[in-house]
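subagent[fold] <- orchestrator: predict structure for attached chain, return tokens only, no commentary.
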Amino acid sequence: MRDRGTVPAWGKTFARGLLRWFARHGRDLPWRRTRDPYRILVSEVMLQQTQVPRVLDYYPRFLRRYPSVEALAAASPARVREAWDGLGYYARARNLHAAARAVVRERRGRFPRTREEAEGLPGVGRYTSGALLAFAFDEPVAALDTNGTRVLSRLFVARRSSSPSRTVARLEALAASLIPKGKGWAFNQALMDFGALVCTARSPRCGACPFRARCRAYARWQRGRLATRRSR
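subagent[fold] -> orchestrator:
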């Protein structure tokens, strides 16, 4: 991986292949059918530490009750907590409610358009700010969740850094360099789905991976397997 965020030699080929894969295999999720920053923020907060199938049940019910950022901002904390009941990690509900109030009361209903401003909202960290900008406004920024981080690490990282923060910064720079023009939404969604469906944490489906011939992790695994066979 390049230290300065420049595109690796086969980076453009990877990006094109990833988008082709996504066009055929990408998941149809309700929050992907909207560019409303409020609805995207709700989905991203719900997806923090919660699996997709569970969020699929809560997301539409929550939006029926609070269909806009103004509706959520006007609600009482007790009512918001009630609507969140059963989803767990209730600090997320408090932060989402506080973020809605900040957007309405401090920003006149306008959502942030920069990472710095987005990360000023309660409960919005590095990933969520990137997701908000990429998915609502199609900005060419990285939205790296655990799936996307794993995919890029396996494919492009030769040696892991001893500094987690430096690793994150390098991967974000790499991801941003790979995004084709006008494809911020599609690239980030594709990276997440590829990590969720193919390049999984456990038992990755390397046989179904169109990038395994260039994958650094797969090459290391192959060398290790060959060395084991020779030692027998």
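orchestrator: received. Logging for downstream: The longest helix spans residues 91-107. DSSP finds twelve helices and no strands in the chain.
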